[in-house]
Design a protein that fits this description.
Layout lengths: L5 E6 L3 H12 L4 E7 L2 H10 L4 E5 L7 H5 L7 E6 L5 H6 L4 E4 L4 H19 L5 E2 L5 E6 L2 E6 L3 E7 L2 E6 L6 E4 L2 H7 L5 E5 L2 E4 L5 E3 L2 E4 L2 E4 L5 H10 L5
Parallel strand pairs: 1-2, 1-3, 3-4, 4-5
Antiparallel strand pairs: 6-7, 7-8, 9-10, 9-13, 10-11, 12-13, 14-15, 15-16
Length: 244
């Protein structure tokens, strides 16, 4: 089991429901509440600035339903649906929700769902994630039932796809696909060699060919630098620029 806590947001248009789930989150040791939101629009704006691991998300809300909102979430954010209507269960699982809580639910039911999420993240961050060497010169990744040794010097960039990562390598037209979250990988890669520049991309700084406005060119692939990561990337450019 991972010792890393899960950050979460509660989204529900009913004040009493928000208060109940907030109380449950606060008494659960491995959960850290970042915000409670009264609708999906408010949550969407918050997540643009601060992505989290887990959403406790009501389904039937005005303007944008929980099901609709779940399809728009960042790739590394997972959902536990909370709703008073059991007819949404099948649809909830179709959008890959980790669990489905039918209101009114007690703390035992909530804890069971939260524990399922905790185990899921532990799996992604632990047993099936990359095993990095202490020297950080290579990593082992599980791909197609094999452990592949990947030299970090050969990596061009990492591309996040929901629960998976594509590893793009030099002299290899096809990427290596592995189960892992981009956030977990970002925390473990050497910061002087790799930088996250977009919600979906971590680039090898040694392999950046051209920087043009807010885009990076690596091996003929253009990657946008998003606003969230631009200050850190500009700092890297300034530190490594020579202005005559």
């Amino acid at each position: 089991m991972s010792n890393q806590k899960l950050t979460c947001v509660i989204v529900d248009d009913e004040p009493m429901a928000r208060s109940m789930v907030e109380a449950y989150v606060n008494k659960t040791p491995f959960l850290v509440l970042k915000k409670t939101c009264k609708n999906a629009i408010e949550a969407m704006e918050f997540l643009k600035e601060e992505p989290v691991d887990l959403l406790f998300l009501d389904i039937q809300m005005p303007d944008l339903t929980g099901i609709e909102f779940s399809k728009m979430l960042p790739k590394d954010t997972r959902v536990i649906f909370t709703t008073a209507f059991n007819q949404y269960a099948v649809e909830g699982f179709k959008v890959e929700a980790l669990d489905y809580l039918l209101k009114p639910f007690d703390y035992a039911e909530f804890l069971a769902a939260a524990d399922k999420a905790n185990k899921w993240f532990a799996l992604v961050r632990g047993n099936q994630q990359s095993l990095l060497s202490e020297e950080k010169e290579f990593l082992f990744v599980k791909s197609e039932y094999k452990q592949l040794r990947i030299k970090l010097a050969d990596v061009l960039y990492f591309e996040g796809l929901k629960d998976y990562i594509k590893i793009w390598l030099k002299d290899n037209p096809k990427p290596v696909l592995t189960l892992m979250s981009l956030k977990t990988l970002e925390d473990e890669l050497p910061a002087n060699k790799f930088m996250r520049v977009h919600r979906s991309f971590i680039v090898s700084l040694d392999n950046v060919d051209v920087i043009e406005r807010s885009q990076i060119l690596i091996n003929r692939q253009r990657i946008s630098v998003s606003e969230q990561y631009k200050p850190k990337f500009l700092e890297f450019i300034n530190k490594n620029s020579f202005n005559a």
